[in-house]
Structures are given as C-alpha cells and as structure tokens.
C-alpha cells in the first residue's frame, strides 16, 4: 500500500491559477522522491497539498491509507504531526538558541501557556538532544540560530521536524540558498533519514544533477502536470 496516493487531484487557486492538474501518483513507503520542474511548475503546491497547507479542488488524496482532503480539527493536526516540512529559508527564529528552535517542534503538544514559558519536559529536552545528534548539530545546542551557516540552519530545521517523529519529510527547495558544500551535508542528512530511519522523503529541487545523485525516483512537473516519472535506474542521460 502506498504511503501517499494522488487520484485525479486538481488544485485551482482562488484567483483561478491552476496549481495542479490531474495528478495521479502513487508513492511507496520509504521512497526518496525528487520533484523537478521550472519555477511555477507546481512543485511547492504538490508538497503543500500533502500536509494540507493547501486544500485540493477535486480528486482524492490518501496519506497512509486515509483520504485526507476533507480533514478538519483533530484529524488534521494528527496528519500534520506525521509530516515534517522544511523550507528554503529554514524558518528558524534567528535570535533564539538552536535548542529552543528544535523544541519548538513540540509546541503543538503542550498547552499554549507552557510553551510560551518554555516549560518543556525532560523527555522532550532529551529528544531535542537526540534529534540534533542525528543531524550532526549537537555541538551547536546553545548557539543562536543566526550564528550558523545556511547548511547548519537547515539541519537544525530538520532536527526540529524530527521532534514530531514524522513518517514523511517534505523538503521544498531545501538547498536553494546553500553553497555546494553545505548542500551536500543537507542532502546527505535527508538521505540518511530515508535509508536508516525508513522515512519517506520528497524533495523539490531545481537541479537535475542533484536529483540523479540522491533520488530513488524522479518526477517532472510542468504547468501543474506530471510530465516525467522514472525510477532512477531508468533515468537516461538525455532526459
Ligand atoms: P513551483 O513550486 O514549481 O515554483 P508553485 O507550486 O509555487 O510552483 O506554483 C504553481 C503555480 O501556482 C504558479 O503559477 C504560481 O504562480 C501559482 N501559485 C502558487 N501559490 C499561489 C497562491 N497562493 N495563489 C495563487 N496562485 C499561486
Ligand atoms: P488557497 O490556497 O487558494 O488559499 P486552499 O484551498 O488552499 O486555497 O484554502 C482555502 C482556505 O482554507 C484558505 O484560506 C486556507 O488558508 C484555508 N485552508 C486550507 N487548508 C486548510 C486546512 N488544512 N486547515 C484550515 N484551513 C485551511
């Protein structure tokens, strides 16, 4: 059974722009899927339908066997906890410590007043340590987020999503603002979560050469449609 299944999914934004057009896509558990396409092709829209940052207009969208397109309230919160997301701009609180940023991955699990006061449990503080160790960033526990390089910040953002124990990680152009060396540390981290922790990872990328290096499968989007879909062993030099 696929962990994510799109059946005839369309997404039209309120202003009439077509985001996704008849997407049919079955993503097996544990796949490392890279989505490529020009700016505006729909990559970001595709990712954001999976955790319901965007609703879909029609079709069916299943996550782990459940049709999620009408989810509300508690079902939606539970869905979102299973799905970690990282962004091009890291979305860290710059003036806060790495530790606080990582713990913020647990904020939704506490009453608001406790998280405002920073009253996290011992088990969550231990979990933050394990998450940071997992991404090789433990030595920066007390550093301020804005003292770190871009690649380090992105790994802290990954550690923050690990606080939710996600089954799925969605990465929207995670290396778009990084240099080649730090790009590798971030992509290697995602690959290791995929291979060692069996997380399903979906990454939007501009670079086809990076896609070839890391993906199990590459799909191409153009104008909201899937125009290319190959397992890595079938990707040809000319593609
Ligand atoms: P990509 O991630 O491949 O750059 P997007 O998914 O961001 O593509 O965008 C797909 C299309 O949807 C583009 O035409 C874009 O302008 C449009 N779009 C994205 N977000 C919105 C929005 N919130 N409202 C209206 N149109 C949007
Ligand atoms: P759009 O992307 O054009 O805003 P959507 O279909 O994504 O259209 O969302 C319609 C409205 O519902 C938006 O105001 C959006 O913020 C909100 N919305 C979308 N998904 C959810 C959700 N899972 N939970 C709560 N509100 C949502």
Quick gist of this model?
The chain is an alpha/beta fold and 239 residues long. It is 33% helix and 26% strand.
Report the portion of residues in β strands: 25-35%
Distance from first to last alpha carbon: 29 Å
**Mean pLDDT value:** 95
Described by the principal axes of the CA atoms, the overall outline is globular
* SSE sequence, one letter per element: EEEHEEHEHHHHEHEHEE
**How many strands appear in the DSSP assignment?**
10
The largest pleated sheet is described as: 6 strands, mixed
The helicity comes to: 25-40%
Which blocks of ≥5 consecutive residues have pLDDT under 50? Answer: none
- Bound molecule kinds, no repeats: adenosine-5'-diphosphate
Arrangement of strands in the largest sheet: 6-7-8-3-9-10
Structural class: alpha/beta
Rg (CA only): 18 Å
- Determine the number of helices (DSSP H or I, runs of at least 4 residues): 8
For the structure shown, list the relevant keywords.
single chain; 239 residues; six-stranded mixed beta sheet; 10 strands; binds adenosine-5'-diphosphate; membrane
Would you give an account of this structure?
- With 239 residues, this protein is of the alpha/beta class.
- Strand 4 and strand 5 form a beta hairpin.
- The mean pLDDT is 95.
- The strands form 2 sheets. A 6-stranded mixed β-sheet has the order 6-7-8-3-9-10, sandwiched between helices. Strands 2-1-4-5 form a 4-stranded antiparallel β-sheet, covered by helices on one side.
- The radius of gyration is 18 Å and the shape is globular.
- The longest helix is centred in the C-terminal third of the chain and has 17 residues, at 180-196.
- The protein is built from 8 helices and 10 strands.
- It binds adenosine-5'-diphosphate (2 copies).
- One adenosine-5'-diphosphate (ADP) binds at residues 13, 15, 17, 19, 37, 39-45.
């Amino acid at each position: 059974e696929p962990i994510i299944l799109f059946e005839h999914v369309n997404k039209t934004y309120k202003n009439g722009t077509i985001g996704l057009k008849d997407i049919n896509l079955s993503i097996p558990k544990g796949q490392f899927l890279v989505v490529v396409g020009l700016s505006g092709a729909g990559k970001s829209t595709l990712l954001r339908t999976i955790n319901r940052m965007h609703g879909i207009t029609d079709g069916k969208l299943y996550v782990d066997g459940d049709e999620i397109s009408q989810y509300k309230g508690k079902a939606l919160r539970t869905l979102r906890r299973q799905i970690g997301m990282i962004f091009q701009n890291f979305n860290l609180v710059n003036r806060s410590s790495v530790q606080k940023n990582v713990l913020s991955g647990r904020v939704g699990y506490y009453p608001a007043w406790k998280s405002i006061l920073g009253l996290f449990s011992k088990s969550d503080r231990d979990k933050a340590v394990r998450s940071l160790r997992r991404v090789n960033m433990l030595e920066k526990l007390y550093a301020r987020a804005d003292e770190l390089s871009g690649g380090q910040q992105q790994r802290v953002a990954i550690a923050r999503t690990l606080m939710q124990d996600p089954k799925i990680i969605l990465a929207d152009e995670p290396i778009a603002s990084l240099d080649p060396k730090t790009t590798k540390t971030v992509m290697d981290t995602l690959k290791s979560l995929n291979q060692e922790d069996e997380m399903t990872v979906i990454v939007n990328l501009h670079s086809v050469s990076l896609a070839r290096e890391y993906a199990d499968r590459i799909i191409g989007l153009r104008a909201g449609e899937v125009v290319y879909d190959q397992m890595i062993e079938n990707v040809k030099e000319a593609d």
